[in-house]
Design goal:
The protein is built from 9 helices and 11 strands. With about 250 residues, the protein is α/β, with parallel strands linked by helices.
Length: about 250
């Protein structure tokens, strides 16, 4: 469904992604793990067009975000990239909710503005999604009245309200304490059980092991190893074993 080929990206002359190639299949949950600074979040941002790659090719099925031929990277026209953006959702570390809007307003804003969804339809859909994430009673509250875990669940409902075909999470629990983390992971487990295609940058090894169909271990801007959880978590690769040992120790 989503294909990245030889993605390279640097900042101020420092290489951050050094030839990443990865395919995400429809209905698959892929967890990206690795030490801080390994390039996981940068890769996710490149897939979502929040960063431009220096070279490489990114395809969402038959639509190209960018292609590299003869060492020249060319991005598709704005309309094509907009169409691709609407097929992908993003959940960030810091929730990014609008503080001056209620929970309901946060969720319906993009469907109405971007997808031109009728307001009443957007409201009904938002209320259904709030029930799905366990926040039916919070529709009229504001972000500052919610816990971090509740805000992140609102952010997930907001992303789902755009009907994405693939949902990307950038360390969605990194700003939360352990109890609130479980609230968010529970929602993500439910989405995985419904065959939502997901790419998740995470430091939650138990979640990666339990929920992911495939785990990708990155370090230094390259993929060190990838495979099913049972394979990767029992890896013979010394660096993979060292990282997982430190995480689980």
């Amino acid at each position: 469904m989503l294909t990245a080929i030889d993605i390279q990206k640097g900042f101020n002359g420092l290489g951050v992604l050094k030839g990443i190639s990865l395919t995400i299949n429809r209905g698959e949950v892929v967890a990206l793990i690795g030490p801080s600074g390994s390039g996981k979040s940068t890769f996710l941002r490149c897939m979502n067009q929040l960063e431009k790659v220096d070279s490489g090719t990114i395809l969402l099925e038959d639509d190209a975000i960018c292609r590299t031929e003869n060492n020249i990277c060319t991005y598709s026209d704005e309309e094509t990239r907009r169409k691709i953006t609407l097929r992908m959702g993003m959940v960030f570390q810091q929730f990014n909710l609008f503080p001056h809007m209620s929970v309901l307003q946060n969720i319906i804003d993009a469907p109405i503005r971007v997808k031109k969804m009728p307001k009443q339809q957007a409201i009904e859909k938002a209320r259904t999604l709030l029930a799905k994430v366990g926040l039916s009673d919070k529709a009229d509250q504001y972000p500052w009245q919610l816990s971090g875990g509740q805000q992140q669940r609102v952010a997930i409902a907001r992303a789902l309200c755009m009907d994405p075909e693939i949902l990307c999470f950038d360390e969605p629990t990194s700003a939360l304490d352990p109890e609130l983390t479980q609230e968010v992971l529970s929602v993500m487990r439910d989405l995985a059980a419904e065959d939502m295609t997901m790419m998740v940058v995470t430091h939650e090894m138990a979640f990666a092991r339990e929920v992911a169909d495939r785990v990708v271990f990155m370090e230094g801007g390259v993929i060190v190893e990838e495979g099913p959880p049972e394979q990767l978590f029992n890896s013979n690769n010394p660096r993979t074993r060292q990282f997982l040992g430190a995480k689980q120790g």
